[in-house]
Design a protein that fits this description.
By secondary structure, this protein is of the alpha+beta class. It has helices spanning about 25-35, 45-75, 100-110, and strands at about 5-10, 20-25, 40, 80-85, 90-95, 125, 130-140, 140-150. The radius of gyration is 26 Å and the shape is elongated.
């Protein structure tokens, strides 16, 4: 009878390991706890090969997504988005320009489908003029755009 067995963890197991790791476990722990609760699989050569192929595929997908984000960042870097808003005589806006407004303008003016969370704006813009605003295409991939706020004729 085997005293230990290799297990591929499907979920995190407290004080034992994280999902995706291959750990050596006591046979009883695996048989009585890990396997019945669906926390792991016995790590046969086929399961290990399938797991490694899955990891490789995920890495390739992430690399492709990062390359696409970098390409988009280069393409849209320095683009200008114009927003027309009501403003007072001294250039102070009635209201403000938010992340949602900028994302919508990018979608309309440049056909760039972005979530408003990609617009890295600390606080809403409240003055006419040109403002540099970073857009996040992926983690650690940002590009600045110019947001030009002009007064709308009432």
């Amino acid at each position: 009878m085997k005293k230990s067995v290799k297990i591929l963890l499907k979920k995190d197991v407290r004080d034992f390991g994280r999902a995706g790791e291959i750990k050596t476990s006591a046979a009883g722990f695996a048989r009585n706890f890990l396997l019945p609760k669906g926390l792991g699989l016995i790590a046969t050569s086929q399961i290990i090969a399938a797991h490694e192929a899955k990891i490789k595929h995920e890495q390739e997908t992430q690399a492709q997504a990062l390359a696409n984000a970098k390409t988009a960042a280069e393409k849209y870097s320095g683009k200008t988005v114009t927003l027309r808003v009501k403003a007072g005589e001294k250039g102070k806006l009635f209201g403000s320009v938010t992340r949602d407004d900028i994302a919508e303008a990018l979608n309309n003016q440049h056909s760039l489908k972005l979530n408003s969370k990609a617009v890295l704006l600390d606080q809403p813009l409240k003055a006419l003029g040109k403002h540099q605003v970073p857009i996040q295409f992926a983690p650690k991939v940002t590009a600045p755009i110019t947001v030009q706020i002009v007064s709308a004729k009432s």
